[in-house]
Design a protein that fits this description.
- By secondary structure, the chain is an all-beta fold.
- Helix content is 0%, strand content 32%.
- The strands form nine sheets. The protein has a five-stranded antiparallel beta sheet, with no helix packed on it. A four-stranded antiparallel beta sheet has the order 5-6-7-8, with no helix packed on it. The protein has a four-stranded antiparallel beta sheet with strand order 9-10-11-12, with no helix packed on it.
- Strand 17 and strand 18 form a beta hairpin.
């Protein structure tokens, strides 16, 4: 069976009392669990699998873009009856053909017990291998992956105890070794980043998490100076931002973005001394940011989860936009339903930010959903953004993956392009009524590598589509991009987007049918690597 363990010392699932768990410093922590916050908690035991059906893996073309299913079995087939969502992608900066994606793996849609699933590719995302889960029958959630500057991958994984651990792969994601031992960091909705600059903080890992699902009395931040093996005692963050991300500028300064009160306002924090291993990090700059709305959760589009979290990214291109700080989130304008993908930029190191800019360019309609918005910055300074979008759906919920980019630091954005066929987000739920809380993208000089969740596969035994993880390559020129080349400036203008894809129609493989039809696998086209650089009262979300 492909769900084989890679840890010979895996332990049975234990239901632990958070109040009895000690902190890394030996002090007893008082857990500040907000009973109203949606938490990634253990509710059901591992699902018993009595039969694993299969169907051809899904390859979903849409115009010039092609989405490849990632969560496949050992023979490259789709697994009927499982579910996968919340994908996080990491790309080897020295070889763009090598990537890995982690996700929440549900062995059965009849259970919300999830594990740390992952897949890897060596042919630029055309074919994927899914060796198994990090630890068999061990509850894990909130996967977040990243790569260091030499191509070693790290996998941050939340456990049922609301502690987490770091796993490392030095072979392109084909196998993983757990580095973190003991309950020393983490909490619900954790995120991390790796310093890939050449300063004193080179290789440091920085991590933040929520104030709920928190064993540290509300402390939210920690740092590792040894690739994630050991972590400093967690500390508080100014204004307690949650559901956000981190990044490092070219000078080694750390930036954190997130939302207070689980909705708004948004904050950008800066630490100039986190890169100094001899001191406990402090935050010398705290800036309130207006994104034109608030984070949304437990709503129509993703009932058990977020409509999106906040993503922060820093430009390290060395060009005119170097060290710009960018933030993007799918936010809900006050007094309206629906969400928009909103963007802000700082050109002064996070001291001030621009007025919010709406990236989705469809006519304003506050019944439409532009959700799970995310972004990445390429080594040449181009900004890529992708999100799920219901603009073309008469029911206001069927969604497509959309893409836009900016080559002038976010001042202007290219016309939006649909890069996937439409799908329903309401089928294939693994007991949890959501498709996860985020999708992710990693960009290089010619395009972006996207990991997202969709329901293209149809399971005739349940008469529903299934949640699966997909990879798609996006680029300003449309579709699979040419071999990445190191450039000092952006390679496309804001109007160079291929418009033909906007009117492309879905293939027959996407519509419900008695059995899914898969497109034959194309021959992989190797791609060399890019230049090395890098409501105040939330409802439960089980």
């Amino acid at each position: 069976m492909r769900f084989s363990t890679i840890s010979a010392n895996s332990l049975p699932i234990l239901l632990l009392s958070l109040a009895s768990i000690a902190t890394a410093s030996g002090q007893t922590a008082k857990s500040k669990l907000n009973p109203n916050e949606p938490l990634e908690k253990y509710n059901m035991p591992p699902a018993y699998i009595y039969r694993l059906g299969m169907s051809p893996r899904m390859i979903s073309p849409y115009g010039v873009f092609i989405s490849y299913q990632v969560n496949v079995d050992a023979q490259g087939n789709n697994i009927l009856g499982d579910a996968a969502n919340e994908p996080s992608i990491a790309v080897d900066p020295t070889d763009g053909n090598k990537m890995t994606i982690g996700w929440r793996q549900f062995n059965s849609v009849q259970s919300d017990f999830r594990q740390g699933g992952w897949g890897f590719t060596t042919d630029a995302g055309v074919t994927w291998t899914f060796p198994g889960v990090l630890e068999n029958n061990v509850f894990r959630s909130d996967p977040v992956l990243d790569s260091d500057d030499t191509g070693n991958f790290s996998y941050l994984s939340l456990r049922e105890t609301f502690y987490d651990d770091i796993w490392r792969s030095i072979n392109g994601g084909s196998s993983w070794t757990r580095l973190t031992l003991g309950d020393v960091s983490g909490g619900d909705k954790q995120w991390f980043t790796i310093d890939r600059t050449n300063g004193t903080g080179h290789g440091f890992q920085y991590q933040l998490w929520s104030t709920s699902g928190n064993n540290w009395g509300g402390r939210q931040f920690s740092r590792s100076t040894d690739n994630g093996a050991t972590w400093m005692s967690p500390i508080f963050l100014p204004n307690s931002p949650v559901w956000g991300t981190l990044d490092v500028d070219s000078n080694g300064n750390l930036f954190i973005g997130g939302a207070a009160n689980f909705t708004s306002p948004f904050w950008c924090l800066r630490s100039t001394n986190a890169q100094n291993p001899a001191v406990t990090p402090t935050f010398d700059q705290v800036t309130q940011v207006n994104l034109g709305g608030s984070l949304d959760f437990g709503d129509t589009i993703n009932p058990g989860g977020l409509a999106g979290q906040l993503f922060l990214a820093v430009d390290r291109s060395g060009g005119p936009t170097n060290n710009n700080v960018y933030m993007v989130a799918s936010v809900q304008p006050t007094g309206f339903s629906g969400t928009d993908v909103m963007f802000v930029r700082s050109t002064d190191g996070g001291s001030t930010f621009s007025a919010p800019h709406r990236i989705n360019d469809d006519p304003i309609n506050h019944n439409k959903w532009h959700w799970l918005g995310t972004l990445a910055v390429a080594p040449n300074g181009r900004i890529d953004s992708v999100w799920l979008d219901s603009r073309n759906a008469a029911n206001n919920t069927d969604s497509q993956l959309f893409y836009s980019f900016s080559t002038d630091g976010g001042v202007t954005w290219a016309p939006n392009v649909a890069v996937s066929a439409p799908f329903t987000p309401f089928e294939g739920y693994p007991v949890q009524n959501k498709m996860g809380d985020y999708i992710t993208i990693v960009s290089d000089n010619t395009g972006g590598n996207v990991a997202y969740t969709a329901t293209f596969n149809f399971n005739p035994s349940t008469s529903q589509h299934e949640e699966d993880v997909y990879f798609v390559r996006v680029s300003p020129t449309g579709g699979p991009s040419p071999t990445p080349t190191p450039t000092a400036t952006a390679t496309a203008t804001p109007t160079a987007t291929a418009t033909a894809t906007a009117t492309a129609t879905a293939t027959a493989t996407i519509t419900p049918s008695a059995t899914p039809t898969a497109t034959p696998r194309p021959t992989p086209t190797p791609r060399s690597g890019p230049t090395p650089r890098a409501r105040p009262t939330p409802r439960p979300r089980s």
